[in-house]
Amino acid sequence: MKKRIAESTAACLVAHAVRRIAAAWLASFSLLIGLFVAGPALAQQQQPVKVISRTLVANSAYRECMAVSDQQTLRYWYRGDALLDFKLQSAAEAISTLKTERQALGSGSFSPKASGDYCMVWTNTSRKALLFRVEFARLPR
Q: Between 2.60.120.680, 3.30.450.20, 2.40.50.140, 3.40.50.720, what CATH number should domain 50-140 receive?
């Protein structure tokens, strides 16, 4: 009799554990399906980071222009293997919003007061070519 009670208790514990494992597996599977279905919608809400690597020959510049709305912030980071100049300006006007000179490393953010096209310009003023890399993203405020 005691042996039967012990066996039935053990069977109940095993059945309970199996049910808990099945419920956890089902919850995980449902989460994965939800992420698979919602993934494209989430990706559309967040702007991807754009990465550019370029070689600038002596006395040359690279310009990257984009539309930035007044509801966005432009985040950027750059690094060169030599000193370079950087400026951020409105594409419509030649007035620089932000300007730094002779830096090999820089980062920052820009939140325009008005929507428009803005350009980031990197200039190599040295006599040698340099390699630089920039990463930037337009993020919602």
A: 2.60.120.680
